[in-house]
Specification:
223 residues, alpha+beta, Jelly Rolls, Arc Repressor Mutant, subunit A, 2 domains, four-stranded antiparallel beta sheet, 11 strands
C-alpha cells in the first residue's frame, strides 16, 4: 500500500519514534511519496545476508530476528528488532550489501523506503545523519553485549538476556524452546532445565505454550 500524504505519517503510532518526526514538512512530503507499507506473517524473510540492498525498513509492529549465516551449521540468531526499530541501516555503509538475514519472528507490519531516499537525507540533513549513526551504535552495543555473554556469561545470564530480547510488551515469551536454544547455543534439554530453575526462583511462570516474566529486574542483573 502506497502512502501519499503527510497524514499517513502523522497518524502512525510510531511516528514519534521514527526519524520522520525530525523532518521538515517539505522533506516529509517528498519522503512519503517513496514509502510503502507491508504486512507479513511469521517466518517470512524480509531480506537476505550478502544480497544487494535496495530498501530500508522501519518496523511498525511485531518482532524480526536477525541471523548471521554459518554455512556448515544452522544460521546463528544474533539479535531481535521490534516496533520502532530500523532494518537494513548497516547496508548504507557496507557497500550496499545486507550484513544479516532478517526474518519475521511474529506477524510484522513495516514500512519500506528506497535506500537512495535515505542516503539523500543522511547527506543533506545533519540531524538525520546523527540519528542514523546513533542507531548503528546502539545495534553494535547490543551485539557486543550478546557476544560477550555468549563467550563468558553464565548459563543463566545467557538465557536471561535472550528471554529479555524475546519478551513482548506483557512480559510474555511465545518462542519455542528450539529458537531459544539457537539463540543461547544450548541444547533444548538445557533450556528446559534452566527455565525450570528460574521458575523455582519465582522469576518465571511457565505454561505449556508460553513463558511469562514475573521478575524482570532479576533477569536484567544476571550475567
Amino acid at each position: 500500500m502506497r502512502m501519499g500524504n503527510t497524514d499517513s505519517c502523522f497518524s502512525c503510532k510510531i511516528f514519534v519514534k521514527c526519524f520522520a518526526s525530525m523532518l521538515s514538512k517539505k522533506e516529509l512530503t517528498e519522503l512519503e511519496g517513496n514509502i510503502s507499507m507491508e504486512d507479513i506473517s511469521e517466518g517470512n524473510v524480509i531480506y537476505t545476508e550478502r544480497k544487494s540492498a535496495s530498501q530500508f525498513y522501519i518496523i511498525r509492529s511485531g518482532k524480526v530476528k536477525l541471523e548471521y549465516g554459518n554455512y556448515s551449521l544452522r544460521p546463528m540468531i544474533i539479535g531481535m528488532k521490534q516496533e520502532g526499530d530500523y532494518l537494513g541501516l548497516e547496508a548504507l555503509f557496507a557497500n550496499n550489501k545486507y550484513l544479516v538475514t532478517a526474518t519475521s519472528f511474529s506477524d510484522v507490519s513495516y514500512c519500506t523506503i528506497p535506500q537512495s531516499s535515505i542516503e539523500q537525507l543522511v547527506l543533506s540533513n545533519t540531524a538525520i545523519c546523527k540519528t542514523m549513526f546513533s542507531n548503528i551504535q546502539r545495534g553494535l552495543e547490543q551485539n557486543l553485549k550478546y557476544t560477550n555473554l555468549m563467550i563468558s556469561g553464565s548459563s543463566l545470564g545467557r538465557l536471561a538476556y535472550v528471554l529479555l530480547l524475546l519478551k513482548d510488551s506483557r512480559g510474555t515469551i511465545n518462542a519455542p524452546k528450539e529458537e531459544i536454544a539457537r539463540m543461547t547455543g544450548f541444547r533444548r534439554e538445557t533450556v528446559s532445565r534452566l527455565l525450570a530453575k528460574l521458575k523455582a526462583r519465582n522469576i518465571l511462570e511457565i505454561s505449556h505454550r508460553e513463558v511469562k516474566i514475573l521478575n524482570q529486574e532479576e533477569l536484567e542483573f544476571m550475567e
